[in-house]
Design a protein that fits this description.
The chain is α/β, with parallel strands linked by helices. It is about 50% helix and about 15% strand. Strands 3-2-1-4-5-6-7 form a 7-stranded parallel sheet, with helices on both faces.
């Protein structure tokens, strides 16, 4: 399905990013497992891919840093000659009510979630233009569609990702490059694992399907958007949220 493709997945050391990396590798792609903090987790993902017969490599880069991201993209292209799939998954949260939110917490979330997405696209789009092909998949959130109290910074960053997705889809379509977003709802990850039982119960009541999703639900959607089967889909936001945003 994705044989001979090279995929870069940002923030791939855990959670949704990890599952996307594993799934793309299962379908034949060589996967670059990007991470910022934990080299150990990223290398564990690489080992798991290799143990299953796939191919992968870990690469450290803070995608919120414009120059670091430029260097990463140049080095990856030098090593692999082409990058066919970009999954912008790297993201952080710094939740809190706006009246108490620090400027630093607002800026950090925007820098990683939104500017990080811009940085990778900015530096990789030139190569994809040369290739006259590419799949860019940006991970947004149901919070970026509906908003969420206590997450103004996160919701703003993820809404920005949707606007960036649609704009880039228009800019890059003539070169055979598709750009889409996935907006996950409540997914069973470390991020939602810290929620109290009462918060989880309240969240489930908002989900028509009545339960949290799994990282694999998002990963399979990403794999579809990365495949030839999705060649005529661009500028779209795919909701993987159990019906929350209906």
């Amino acid at each position: 399905m994705l044989e001979k493709k090279v995929a870069l997945v940002t923030g791939a050391g855990r959670g949704i990013g990890r599952e996307i990396a594993l799934t793309l590798a299962e379908k034949g792609a060589f996967v670059v497992v990007n991470y910022q903090g934990s080299r150990e987790r990223a290398e564990e993902v690489v080992r798991e891919i290799q143990e299953k017969g796939g191919n992968a490599a870990a690469y450290q880069c803070n995608v919120a840093d414009f120059s670091q991201t430029e260097r990463m993209v140049k080095e990856l292209i030098a090593s692999y000659q082409h990058i066919d799939i970009l999954v912008n998954n790297a993201g952080i949260t710094r939740d809190g009510l706006v009246m108490k939110m620090s400027e630093e917490d607002f800026d950090k979330v925007i820098a990683t979630n939104l500017k990080g997405t811009f940085n990778t696209i900015r530096h990789l789009s030139r190569q994809m233009n040369k290739q006259k092909s590419g799949r860019i998949i940006n991970i947004s959130s149901v919070s970026g569609v509906l908003g969420n109290a206590g997450q103004a910074n996160y919701a703003a960053s993820k809404a920005g990702v949707i606007g960036l997705t649609k704009s880039m889809a228009r800019e890059l379509a003539s070169r055979g490059i598709t750009v889409n977003a996935i907006a996950p709802g409540f997914i069973d990850t470390d991020m939602t694992g810290v929620l109290s039982d009462s918060v989880k119960e309240a969240a489930v009541r908002q989900i028509p399907l009545g339960h949290f999703g799994k990282p694999k639900d998002v990963a399979e959607t990403a794999a579809f958007l990365a495949s030839d089967a999705a060649a005529y889909i661009t500028g779209q936001v795919i909701h993987v949220d159990g019906g929350m945003a209906i």
